[in-house]
């Protein structure tokens, strides 16, 4: 049975700019917003948009991600025909193995796409925080008679040179593409979300794979080739919340924006567009009589006996008496011992912060770096971790790192 549109979700990114957070974890599996992982957003967008067939292309450190996705049940994607499919690279008769680029990753899965004989294919990124109705995007694509459409957002002109930019006319038809130009002609930044007519995508993937000089990349190869051939290409303007959380500072900022939905534009409490995730299975959280909690998100299984202010605590976090957590993102299973101070930082999963230890510093107008502690690290009693430190190994009691 043919599907009108299926999704191919690129989730193999290494996320090297997240340093200690992605040493043993694929970027799409990084926890976000108290009870989610980054990949929950595109998967939830799919099911909310009526897309019931999703191929997830994994590569780097896929174990946790594969385990988390499972059979797709949390997103209602456990289907007999369609549903969610994890698609790692594999050895084929042609000799291909690792995905060489974004276009090559899709090329290696042409046979998967053809099982569903779709009219359209939407290419998604597994490492963005975005709430988007893909059915509205598809409607635009059809109305324009497009062969390729890309979701774009207007960015400040002084930041435009950081992005791949689409130059479009008054009808939104794309006339030029600029990849991180010094002198931008447009401020329409590509979100890396594309809709193709399947016959067009297949043709250009095959041609690209046959080119020995190609980087096998959508931005560097496929899109310029479509422009060269004068294809019907359109820019779909998106005005909702979108953030590429590719750096420590942007990941921290996006988590803090969750705490201010009225101004930031990201509302995780919206009943009309839910973001689904796998249930932790933990009990409810407990706020002790001696605790103080202000403007924070406290999730399942947390035990709070200290002070938590403007922070996000994932499932199973423990904050002991006298400990202070402020402007922080603390991921699941972490224990913050009595008297410890944790400020303006990201703490990964299953970390122990020893008694009276200090991690990060108070946020100031001057702006300081976000301290980062990797998964499973032990920070000894009375240790001090400075505001720019990235810690991936245990720190002994009384030691300092900056």
Automatic annotation (TrEMBL):
To which species is this protein native? Answer: Anthropogastromicrobium aceti
Taxonomy, top ranks, is: Bacteria, Bacillati, Bacillota, Clostridia, Lachnospirales
* Pathway per the UniProt entry: Glycan biosynthesis; glycogen biosynthesis
**Spans traversing the lipid bilayer:** none
Q: What class of enzyme is it?
A: transferase
- Please name the gene that encodes this protein: glgC
Indicate what this protein is called per its UniProt record: Glucose-1-phosphate adenylyltransferase
Q: Which NCBIfam families match?
A: glgC, PRK05293.1
Q: Which UniProt keywords apply?
A: ATP-binding, Carbohydrate metabolism, Glycogen biosynthesis, Glycogen metabolism, Nucleotide-binding, Nucleotidyltransferase, Transferase
Q: Which InterPro entries match?
A: ADP-Glc_PPase (IPR011831), ADP_Glu_pyroP_CS (IPR005836), GlgC_bac (IPR023049), GlmU/GlgC-like_hexapep (IPR056818), NTP_transferase_dom (IPR005835), Nucleotide-diphossugar_trans (IPR029044), Trimer_LpxA-like_sf (IPR011004)
As recorded in UniProt, its EC number(s) are 2.7.7.27
């Amino acid at each position: 049975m043919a599907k009108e549109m299926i999704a191919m979700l690129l989730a193999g990114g290494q996320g090297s700019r997240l340093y200690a957070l992605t040493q043993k974890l694929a970027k799409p599996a990084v926890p976000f917003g108290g009870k989610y992982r980054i990949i929950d957003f595109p998967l939830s967008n799919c099911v909310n948009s009526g897309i019931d067939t999703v191929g997830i292309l994994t590569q780097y450190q896929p174990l946790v991600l594969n385990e988390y996705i499972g059979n797709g049940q949390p997103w209602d994607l456990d289907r007999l025909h369609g549903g969610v499919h994890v698609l790692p690279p594999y050895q084929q008769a042609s000799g291909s193995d690792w995905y060489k680029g974004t276009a090559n990753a899709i090329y290696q899965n042409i046979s998967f796409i053809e099982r569903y004989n779709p009219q359209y294919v939407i290419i998604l990124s597994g490492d963005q925080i975005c709430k988007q109705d893909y059915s509205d995007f598809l409607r635009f694509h059809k109305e324009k008679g497009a062969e390729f459409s890309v979701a774009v957002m207007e960015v400040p002109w002084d930041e435009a040179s950081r992005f791949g930019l689409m130059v479009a006319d008054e009808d939104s038809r794309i006339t030029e593409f600029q990849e991180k130009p010094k002198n931008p002609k447009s401020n329409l930044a590509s979100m890396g979300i594309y809709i193709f007519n399947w016959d067009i995508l297949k043709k250009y993937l095959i041609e690209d794979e046959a080119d020995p000089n190609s980087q096998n990349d959508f931005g560097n190869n496929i899109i310029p080739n479509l422009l060269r051939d004068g294809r019907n290409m359109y820019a779909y303007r998106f005005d909702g919340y979108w953030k590429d959380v590719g750096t420590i500072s942007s990941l921290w900022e996006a988590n803090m924006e969750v705490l201010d939905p009225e101004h930031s534009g990201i509302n995780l409490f919206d009943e009309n567009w839910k973001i689904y995730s796998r249930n932790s299975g933990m009990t409810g959280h407990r706020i002790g009589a001696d605790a103080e909690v202000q403007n924070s998100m406290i999730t399942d299984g947390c035990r709070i006996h200290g002070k938590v202010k403007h922070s996000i605590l994932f499932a199973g976090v423990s904050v002991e008496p006298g400990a202070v957590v402020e402007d922080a993102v603390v991921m699941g299973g972490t224990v913050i011992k009595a008297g410890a101070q944790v400020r303006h930082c990201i703490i990964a999963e299953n970390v122990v912060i020893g008694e009276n230890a200090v991690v990060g510093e108070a946020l100031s107008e001057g702006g300081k770096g976000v301290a980062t502690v990797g998964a499973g690290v032990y920070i000894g009693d009375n240790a001090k971790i400075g505001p720019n430190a990235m810690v991936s190994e245990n720190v002994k009691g009384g030691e300092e790192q900056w």
